[in-house]
Amino acid sequence: MDIIINFKAYKEGSGKRALELARIAEEISEKVDFYIAVAPNYLDISDIIKNTNIDVFAQHVDAVEYGSYTSRINAEMLKEKGVRGSLINHSERRLKLADIEYIVSKFRKLGLVSIVCTNNITTTASASALNPDYVAIEPPELIGTGISVSKAEPEVVENSVKAAKNINKNVKVLCGAGISDYEDIVTALDLGSDGVLVASGIVKAKDQRRALEELVGLR
């Protein structure tokens, strides 16, 4: 079971709070068999990498080389910072298919882990054909609602897993949107997913440690 925590641009997951949450995630990961990684905003990446041993992912990467691209981040920059990989095509930062293909290919060459976010069965199948390490199915209408996709739209998860594996047996499938407790994880696994992509359920929780412990079944 793989768990990726997306800090987004939440106040509760930025600055000193980002480092605190990353440390909590690292401590809990040492108590369970789950793989847990974090995806903070760009400004907090270096601090977390320097002060923890948890895998750090970027939240977005652009399909550009070095050059005159103001406010863009390319794969080489992420590699130099020491990140493990990046989310690609999140519903809040959509990309063109050609850009996704470019980034996944570049990541493969650089040894970075690609997590391509998708929003339905068709795009999951298309993304899987690009040979990323992960695809993460997240219906955008459920993101941040607290309503788990694994419960509200289980057929989307189950059929996305089948579509992905039929095209690329090596790709891992994450289930996202509304994941907040251990029951959601169990349901996601029962539907065939390899892990979950979480955000507000952990980052915006009043007690982040307790929320993450409940997510992994320690409470």
Folded structure, characterized:
The protein is α/β, with parallel strands linked by helices. The protein has a single domain, classed as Aldolase class I (TIM Barrel, Alpha-Beta Barrel), CATH 3.20.20.70. Helix content is 42%, strand content 17%. The protein is built from ten helices and eight strands. Strands 1-2-3-4-5-6-7-8 form an eight-stranded parallel beta barrel, surrounded by six helices. Strand 2 (35-39), helix 2 (42-51) and strand 3 (55-58) form a beta-alpha-beta unit. The longest helix has 14 residues, at 16-29. The model has no long low-confidence stretch (mean pLDDT 91).
The tally of helices reads 10
Strand content: 15-25%
How would you name the CATH homologous superfamily?
Aldolase class I
Radius of gyration: 16 Å
CATH architecture identity: Alpha-Beta Barrel
- Could you say what the CATH topology is called? TIM Barrel
Point out poorly predicted stretches: none
Instruction: Give the fraction of residues assigned to helices.
Output: 40-55%
Described by strand count, sense and barrel closure, the largest sheet is: 8 strands, parallel, barrel
Number of strands: 8
* Global morphology: globular
How do the helices and strands follow one another from N- to C-terminus? EHEHEHEHEHEHHEHEHH
- Please, what is the oligomeric state? single chain
Instruction: Name the strands of the widest sheet in spatial order.
Output: 1-2-3-4-5-6-7-8
Structural class designation: alpha/beta
Straight-line distance between termini: 17 Å
Overall pLDDT metric:
91
Reading off the top of the CATH hierarchy, the class is best stated as Alpha Beta
Number of domains: 1
